[in-house]
Design a protein that fits this description.
Largest sheet: none
Oligomer: single chain
Helix content: 55-70%
Order of helices and strands: HHHHHHHHHHHHHHHHHHHH
Shape: globular
Mean pLDDT: 84
Length: about 425
């Protein structure tokens, strides 16, 4: 089947299939991040030192990639994310391989975090083994075999295959240009270590406050945006000329998408014994997250008040994401589609959450096929027009609460 035929089939599947399947946590998280506060700078410098070791040494340990490895990545992408199997082919040719590889590397870290049968200590061990294999080229086969055997039977088959075939993804990673490879390794290293911290402390009682929520979202989403921004700037001198402006809005993109996803996943997370909502926000409105249940025990108004405050914060972040998107040069239509589709899907989903505060499952706040299809078709027709894209966003977000701009997440390293 030709590349064009594959893309056509994926587009048809996405637009006519179940949109809920396209909204997995990682899919919602492709966004951007600015370099924030001294703690973040220290974390980034630590990662650069780890990654900036003698690259000739790494190339000896990691065999060259071949065509089979590239084909594996294209095929497994469709299995682990329908969203990215649709949107990545829209990117310019030089960006497709590093973006695909970066997504798959992040997906492996996410698979470890989400596994039902691994306790916090085992997840910590596997994340450290993964980062070590990724950064040094040592223990690659042992890590892949060991984790594949320990994953829960409930882990989706394609994710299990991705873990088993991690050596293929690593070979492609090390075949990338040094600047792109460095961006990927820095992202996954920061993400993995941040995930480990929050995995050890996850509970049904929620996070402490908005700052804690934003810090968590930074680790699972914002760092991906930093990677994407770096890849975009490596690809295009025109985009690189706008780097400071992009970095100023990048963190908003990541937090807006991830916060939306957390709100949609409230009840799925509760079923897993986890809550990512900030306690302080709900306590201020008289709602105790320890008693969080779909019926709300007669406290729906208090729950709605806390929920609307978080919707306002997410909406504010998505407005920053819009500013980020409009900074991409008009002629870069593939990159603009990649960003616009994620942005519009997020704001439409946020509206569903706002309109249905009694929802008790993600399926109740999914975007309808008709709404999604029409929105993407309209966005494609206006992809070069900043004015039209902004108008479409504002129309989609009409009536949503608008929160105060919150603090940048503080990242502390030890």
């Amino acid at each position: 089947m030709t590349h064009g035929a594959i893309v056509g089939r994926l587009r048809s599947s996405f637009l006519n299939g179940d949109p809920a399947e396209s909204c997995d946590r990682t899919a919602f998280c492709w966004s951007a991040h600015s370099k924030i506060e001294e703690g973040t700078e220290r974390a980034m410098e630590t990662n650069r030192q780890q990654i900036g070791r003698d690259e000739s040494e790494l190339s000896v340990r990691v065999a060259p990639a071949d065509g089979d490895d590239e084909r594996f990545q294209e095929e497994i992408l469709h299995g682990v994310s329908r969203t990215f199997a649709l949107t990545i082919p829209e990117l310019p040719d030089p960006l497709r391989r590093p973006v695909t590889t970066g997504y798959l590397l992040c997906r492996i870290a996410d698979t470890i975090e989400d596994d039902h049968d691994l306790d916090a200590d085992l997840k910590d061990q596997y994340l450290e083994a993964y980062l070590s294999a990724l950064e040094t080229g040592n223990g690659v086969e042992e890590f892949a075999r060991g984790l594949h055997l320990r994953l829960s039977p409930r882990t989706p088959t394609d994710e299990r295959v991705l873990v088993r075939e991690f050596p293929r993804v690593l070979r492609v990673t090390h075949s990338l240009p040094p600047a792109d490879r460095g961006a990927l390794l820095e992202c996954v290293s920061t993400m993995g270590r941040g995930m480990g911290e929050y995995e050890r402390n996850r509970s049904r009682s929620g996070l402490a406050d908005i700052r804690d929520l934003e810090r968590y979202c930074y680790y699972v989403a914002g760092v991906v945006g930093e990677m994407l921004t770096e890849l975009f700037c490596n690809y295009s001198p025109d985009i690189n000329a706008r780097r400071p402006l992009l970095e100023a809005h990048a963190v908003d993109f990541g937090l807006g998408l991830q916060m939306t996803n957390i709100l949609m996943d409230i009840w799925d997370d509760i079923d897993r014994g986890t809550c990512w909502l900030p306690r302080e926000v709900f306590q201020r409105h008289g709602y105790d997250l320890d008693s969080l249940t779909p019926g709300h025990n007669g406290q729906l108004d208090a729950f709605r008040a806390g929920l609307n405050e978080l919707i306002g914060v997410a909406h504010q972040k998505l407005r920053g994401a819009l500013a980020y998107t409009l900074l991409i040069p008009r002629h870069e239509t593939g990159i603009r589609r990649f960003l616009v589709w994620a942005l519009l899907l997020a704001v439409l989903s946020l509206r569903k959450v706002y309109e249905r505060p009694r929802f008790a499952a993600r399926s109740e706040v999914k975007v309808s096929r008709r709404s999604l299809r029409s929105t993407l078709m309209v966005s494609n027709a206006m992809i070069r027009s900043n004015t039209a894209i902004k108008a479409l966003f504002l129309r989609s977000a009409r009536g949503l609460p608008t929160g105060q701009k919150s603090h940048r997440p503080r990242v502390v390293t030890t």
